[in-house]
Amino acid sequence: MNESKQRYVPAIVFCVLGLIWGCNFIYMKMASTLITPDQIAFFRVLFGFSPVLLYAIFTRAFRRAHARHIGHFAVMAFLTATYYYSFAKGTSMLYSGVAGIVSGGSPIISFLLTMAFLKEEKLSFKKAVGIMLGFVGLALVARPSAEQLLSSNMQAVLYMLAGILSVGSSFVYTKKFITPLKIKSGALTAYQMGLALIFLACFTNYKGIGNIWTEFYPAVGIVVGLGLLGTGAAFIMYYYVIDKLGAVTASSATYIPPIVALFIGVLIANESIECMDYLAAALVFAGVFLLRRKK
User: Fold this and answer.
1) Which of 218, 248, 8 has its CA nearest to residue 96?
2) Is the backbone of residue 50 left (phi > 0), alpha (psi -120 to 50) or beta?
């Protein structure tokens, strides 16, 4: 491949990454008809760990000295396991497209946690408006009322928010404790996912877990789509984009999954998403856009 074509590779990988992440919600939704959310999270990490481990070995990222930081890796693994379980639980109770909309709130929560604990962000008027728009959008998805506070819709959104909070917390923890260690991304991801797999293996209820193999598409979705591609390969692609395009550009890949999930839900899964959900999506996207603006 000549140099003129190579320069387009990072941009192509960036788009493919957003597409892969956006497809994760439909895979979780299909699997939820056969197995439980904890089992979905277990399979996701089990099959996602393999490519990450091979990548770390291939790049010779492992070092014996890393063992002294196992406490930090365990914290990251716990947050990862919580994130995967919460998203699987929330998606099982929502349309996959709506779950994708809620996931779009990740940058908003991450910004609030960064502002609170890292003191790297200052709250401007535009960012305050962005936060408000984002939360209004999330509230529209939940549509809470006096009669609905205990409804499955509200509970599902709370599970999704728990997952988003785990993602935001992992970002803050990484910036504060992991980044200064100067450990290669391949090793960090392998440690994180390996320990997350141990956590999930200990707490997963295995009753009925074999049901996933009774139907072809859910089985392929959870092994190839959610595990190998949506988790393992996605991590590798994400760090490649960071290396080639920078962390800020790479983080903007989170704009793509909610849109992809929404279109897949409507056009492929025939989910009857309401106009209110489209309005919620627009508000969440607008909120994230304002948070990303430099001025």
Assistant:
1) 218
2) alpha
| Rounded (10°) angle between helices 70-93 and 9-31 | 60
Q: Residue ranges of the domains in the chain?
A: 24-292
pLDDT digits (tens, 9 = 90+) for 84-131: 999 999 999 888 888 888 887 777 777 778 777 776 667 777 878 877
Sign of CA pseudo-dihedral 257, 263, 266, 272: positive
Measured CA distances, 265 to 17, 29, 107, 108, 211 (Å):
18, 10, 22, 23, 23
Task: Give 199-237 pLDDT, tens digit per residue.
Answer: 999 999 999 999 999 999 999 999 999 999 999 999 888
- Cα separation, 29 vs 4, in Å, equals 41
DSSP alpha helices (H): ranges in 148-273? 152-173, 185-203, 216-220, 234-245, 247-251, 256-263
Task: Give Cα 277 to chain centroid, integer Å.
Answer: 20
